[in-house]
Amino acid sequence: MTPTGKSIHINPRVLEAQYAVRGLIPMRADEIKNELTTPEGKGKYPFSSLVYCNIGNPQALDQKPLTFFRQVMALVDAPFLLENEKVVSQFPEDAVARAKEYLGHIGNRTGAYTDSAGYAFARDIVARHINERDRNVKPLEDASSIVLTDGASTGVRLLLQVLVGGASDGVMIPIPQYPLYTAQISLLGGTPAMYYLEESERWALNVAELNSVYDDCVKKHNATPRVLVVINPGNPTGGVLERGVMEEVAKFCCDRGVVLMADEVYQENIYAEERRFVSFREVVLGLPAPYNTDTMLVSLHSTSKGIIGECGRRGGYFSMTNLPSLLREQVMKMCSINLCSNVNGQLMTALMCSPPRSGDASYESYWSEYNSIFSSLKKRALMLAKELNTIRGFECQPVEGAMYAFAQIRLPEKYMRRNDELNAQEGRKLSADARWALELLESTGIVIVPGSGFGQRPNTMHFRTTILPPEQQMERMVQSLRSFQEGIWEKYV
Amino acid sequence: MTPTGKSIHINPRVLEAQYAVRGLIPMRADEIKNELTTPEGKGKYPFSSLVYCNIGNPQALDQKPLTFFRQVMALVDAPFLLENEKVVSQFPEDAVARAKEYLGHIGNRTGAYTDSAGYAFARDIVARHINERDRNVKPLEDASSIVLTDGASTGVRLLLQVLVGGASDGVMIPIPQYPLYTAQISLLGGTPAMYYLEESERWALNVAELNSVYDDCVKKHNATPRVLVVINPGNPTGGVLERGVMEEVAKFCCDRGVVLMADEVYQENIYAEERRFVSFREVVLGLPAPYNTDTMLVSLHSTSKGIIGECGRRGGYFSMTNLPSLLREQVMKMCSINLCSNVNGQLMTALMCSPPRSGDASYESYWSEYNSIFSSLKKRALMLAKELNTIRGFECQPVEGAMYAFAQIRLPEKYMRRNDELNAQEGRKLSADARWALELLESTGIVIVPGSGFGQRPNTMHFRTTILPPEQQMERMVQSLRSFQEGIWEKYV
């Protein structure tokens, strides 16, 4: 109701949309965090601080930014510093040269709107990076298929908006998925068509399943799938796809005329020795005709993840492969309505795609910082999965990549019945894993996201935690999870 | 068609959306700009460079950024500089102090995602600024009604998305309007309900018209207006509303249960001596009960305009007044799906709302830069309207505020008929003002936007130009417009 007593109208699609990564549990966490700052709140919980493991936000958990990138950013933000020899002398030569190079391209105008798709020079850098990354395929001739975005999320939103007009349009998404996808599908009124990943096979993608999900979507839901979303490395699963599977996925998309949306924001986050990142672009262009020319692909990347971890910059890009020109035109028109992505994010994207090279003044320090972050992430990824598997009722696949463990939880029957009873008393419909996550939070200060926020097979429960807490906090987290979960098994059996 | 010959499906709402500010004319301008860099292109046009007057992008037209803001931004981007005495000594004390203050609030984490609505400290600064700006009304107690955004555009998009679910939801917009509004209405499938501004009265808003447009929307289009958009100072019109009119507008919204969306991004851009900016918040809260508590208001602001002109930062905010809690919750959920706005934009917004104060080291230099930009804008605003009124067939209202002149054009009958003939030959449906703008571009290099991109009364034609070209370029622009337009009157009469 409005203040005047009139009923307030809200877009029903908005009412429907959910985003668990910042949903019930993190919101309760923020309440507790505020309580902890008050005199009454201090003694109320058996902990004095929270460990936020709900969101992949590395620098919030003390990961240091890469120095070279910040040096360039500072000089580009304040070009007059380049005229001050006392300041310039405190920066490495290559940072100064890089700042001058960027400013030269943009005529000192970091305060101006850029082209709708981003600065041409920054898109060129991205295109060169893609050409170096992808092996044995036709290089991009120019940057016309690259669009710079405010993080990958705005790219996902824009592309889905162009492709999905309503309930007759399906979007195939993995389960579990990153909840941005279901949220955007709700907002667009599209039809989600969910395909399950195979948990027992390190969350592998089952191509046979794609065909049956496609057919079901058409027959049972009267919706034609327009997009297939693949997240590789997987969020929340941590799985990394094999090339053979990727080829089958691409062929499926080509045969069905579905756009393949490859969320590749974790492309630098691969920890398993036997895995390496292969982009869908490399896979598609490496297929025989007609697949190499007819598979429609959009690939997304971001400055928020990887080793750079610059979430706050909201930098990122998507690249378009084999899209028909009408579709590209509409994508570009949508970019123009949004004016442009933010300049600092654009610059950070360019930097991510062109780190210092051998011989540059910052080469060694850059790679030393980079490798130290990478090896620590790798250590935590391996350690976390291993430790979780020693806790009663937990089962966790190896964290091959990305920034998360997605562990299965089993809970005593009695705990499940208690949840039903509590829900009846409280008049709400908390899933058992959400109740579990809430009680974990309130008794330990650990903030994770229940599996129901990502989707999971019926009658299974999971939780997602990031691998990002520094090693000491990680120990507290594992210990808290252990005593909480084992306490439940003691109490409710 | 897709490469495989399958028909490609595109969201029909996307196909429908138009955005003239970066539409046909600016796209043709970019083509010409590229041609001019080639040997063949050089002699092809009677000019060697373009003057972009299509978009309010001050720094692209050589407006200097405000130094203090950039100093703080550089230090916050590279916090390690604060530990280097040689660097610190080159910055004014207050820039160093400000950077330390901001970094203290955010724990050095400018690379992290922020709270969904933006950093609490930055929102507090915005709230204090609003409390200083708005006179004789109840102050904001905290920043819970402030949301930081990537420019005002993302705020408009988010708010309209929450309020407009489909064709049964109307959005009342002024004609002429900023085409972001019609684009977003198309994308949401809402029903536009257009009210005309009174050109001959300096583009005044006619409140009687609001009621009849509301009723028509309900009766003729089966849609209930949910939002009334008011742009003040006006884009593209340059008009500034009087307080009495604003009070009537607020009462209308309250009586009808419509959310008042106040686009106040030009609040610092008022040039007419007899006008000053009054915010809709001040007006609403200053009304007697029940209007002061029951008028639902959202107000938008941006770092892109004003004197700061930091378009590329994509900074901005909206504030919510008297919104019911369900609506606020849904707004906040939508923010969380978008993660957060970019940190540099958030910091720029905080800076815009808290410039150096009397006694600060940068106080005098800041205000000297500020006043010099302001007085040059004012000079150009007055000069441009005056000059345009000396050209045959042009009529331009005073540019009281904002960054644009929106002039009416009259063209000879013969020119109009020629457009019909050319359209028939070319198989397209260019409006006469679009044809005129295209020919202006191709013969003079001046890039403006035809009135049809903003909406105008039937049988009238206009064009919008920014007042932003530096004074010398402005002379070229006026001269080009004059000889082009007078040439048409000579040739086609």
Structure characterization notes:
2 copies of one chain form a homodimer. With 493 residues, chain A is α/β, with parallel strands linked by helices. Chain A is built from 19 helices and 14 strands. The first copy, chain A, folds into 2 domains: 12-61 and 371-492, Aspartate Aminotransferase, domain 1; 120-353, Type I PLP-dependent aspartate aminotransferase-like (Major domain) (Aspartate Aminotransferase, domain 2, 3-Layer(aba) Sandwich). An 8-stranded mixed β-sheet of chain A has the order 2-9-8-7-6-3-4-5, with helices on both faces. In chain A, helix 11 links the parallel strand 6 (224-231) and strand 7. In chain A, helix 4 (67-77) crosses helix 6 (93-106), helix 7 (120-133) runs parallel beside helix 15 (343-352) and helix 8 (151-163) packs parallel to helix 9. The first copy, chain A, is globular, with a radius of gyration of 24 Å. At the A-B interface, helix 1, helix 4, helix 8, helix 9 and helix 14 of A face helix 1, helix 4, helix 8, helix 9 and helix 14 of B.
